[in-house]
Write a structure and sequence with these properties.
Helix content is about 35%, strand content about 25%. The protein is built from 4 helices and 5 strands, in the order βαβαβαββα. It has helices spanning about 10-15, 30-45, 60-65, 95-105; strands at about 5, 20-25, 50-55, 75-80, 85-90. The protein has a 5-stranded mixed beta sheet. It is globular and about 30 Å long. The chain starts with a strand and ends with a helix.
């Protein structure tokens, strides 16, 4: 299961990570978000030790969502060395996300 990023751990786990990080901005009520949840969970397991994959609930962590200008969900941000290196808005296939993650490792 993907890691849950919160205001308490976002800086440490995402911005200070030595590995690439994929952050899925989502909400419980979002249908497309629920559709990609299994993909995000699979990527978390597959990339363990190489990249970190997690989620930010935009309803409970609105400060993080606002900081990154999230206006549509799902929005997927790819971080490397604390910087956003790629962004995808809307649902994405597992293959697309795997390829992007691999390119940052």
């Amino acid at each position: 299961m993907a890691k849950e990023f919160t205001t308490d751990n976002f800086n440490r786990d995402v911005l200070e990570s030595t590995q690439p990080v994929l952050v899925d901005f989502w909400a419980e009520w979002c249908g497309p978000c629920r559709m990609i949840t299994p993909v995000i969970d699979e990527l978390y397991d597959e990339f363990e030790g190489q990249a970190l994959v997690g989620k930010v609930n935009v309803d409970s962590e609105s400060e993080i969502a606002a900081k990154y200008g999230i206006t549509s969900i799902p929005t997927l941000l790819f971080f490397k060395n604390g910087e956003i290196v790629d962004k995808h808005v809307g649902p994405a296939s597992k293959v697309q996300l795997e390829e992007k993650l691999k390119s940052f490792i």
